[in-house]
Amino acid sequence: xxxxxxxxxAGLRFAVAHVNFGLRGPESDEDELFVRQLASQHKAPFxxxxxxTRQVAATAGISTQMAARQLRYDWFExxxxxxxxxxxxxxxxxxxxxxxxxxxxxxxxxLAGLRGMPVRQGRIIRPLWFTDxxxxxxxxxxxxxRWREDSSNASDYYPRNRLRHQVVPVLKELNSNLTHTLxxxxxxxxxxxxxxxQEVDDSWxxxxxxxxxxxxxxxxxxxxxxxxxxxxxEWLRPYGxxxxxxxxxxxxxxxxxxxxxxxSTHRVIRDRAFLAIQxxxxxxxxPVVLNELPANEVPIGKGGSLTFQLLExxxxxxxxxxxxxxxxxxxxxxxxLIIRPWEEGDRFHPLGMQGxxxxxxxxxxxxxxxxxxxxxxxxLSGESKSMAWLIGYRPxxxxxxxxxxxxxxxxxxxxxxxxxxRGVAD
Length: 426
Hints:
The protein is α+β, with helices and mostly antiparallel strands. It folds into three domains: 2-181, HUPs (Rossmann fold), CATH 3.40.50; 208-279, Uridine Diphospho-n-acetylenolpyruvylglucosamine Reductase, domain 3 (2-Layer Sandwich), CATH 3.30.465; 288-421, 3-Layer(bba) Sandwich (Phenylalanyl-tRNA Synthetase, Chain B, domain 3). It has helices spanning 2-9, 26-41, 53-60, 64-83, 94-107, 111-114, 133-142, 159-174, 178-207, 219-223, 228-236, 246-255, 359-365, 370-373, 418-421, and strands spanning 16-20, 46-50, 88-89, 120-121, 124-125, 209-211, 214-218, 260-262, 266-270, 274-279, 288-290, 298-300, 304-312, 325-329, 337-341, 347-348, 357-358, 377-381, 386-390, 394-395, 407-414. The strands form six sheets. A five-stranded antiparallel β-sheet has the order 6-7-10-9-8. It has a five-stranded antiparallel β-sheet with strand order 11-15-18-19-20, with helices on one face. Helix 5 crosses helix 8 (159-174).
């Protein structure tokens, strides 16, 4: 509301865009009406869209908050393209920046995460970046501006809200000038990040060798660089590799050839003299999300499929001795089910074994060749994304049939699993 008021007083030409996420019922609809009236008062074009945020989140296998963020920014970009808007202005301020920095700190981050959200990011601009929430509220009261509070802001259910209500007030007690201090710190971090980014980019240009089947990095030249594991983490980040995946890649580089590592879009191969980065076939590796028991066969990747049956457990039931078939306790399985390729760091409790282990270690212990690990898929259960089945190899012990099981979810893999034919999965 304050940003719109300032835009109007500055004589800027602008439009107002509002996303109705449908998460708070009538309250969401009242928000939309309120913003529509605001745009009318300023004689500004008004754009609105309604989305089923929960459904999008379940289909994509992400949190509701992440889905809402993606939905609104994707739509803002489309509006800017369609109507020729020069920028997308959001009203983030210094308290938002501080909360973002704290969230990134708790999750683990590099320099980019410590500087929070920038003033400009592509077409996105943040005109209120310079001030804090208290000053904005004071201005709104002085100018008699009306606004609405999202009722979910009062809840401590979300991590950002807990930081806002419980952590930030303590920090401001320790430093009453925290906003100014934060701005100074961020400026220094941004300068440091720019220097690091230039060095990382320059070394990448000298190191990367483009070939028809991917990008190749000479291992001997890589390991001769200072802080080469950090450089490698920065080089691989655009290809979907998380910082946590870098340590095993570094170990593979030190030990020798023969290992592969996967992100959702690419793979890294430790060859004898090179580290190769290759794109994975996106059509082949698209994840599948099931919100309910499917009645028909579900295609998975290229040439594979799954069939599902819900059975009552009877005394006569015998679990098939077939690695292509998983029989799971249906009441332990939660929806949605997410079927996707396995990734480095995936962990499960193999049936019949004590404790958990990574999928990578499971394959290594059974001598599954690196080239054939790539075709493995996992089935994840519910919002927790607990692995219920390393498909075609081993169900998870937590979803096993017990004496208390009443219903069985029988899932069968119909696809090529060469290692199973050779008994590796037994």
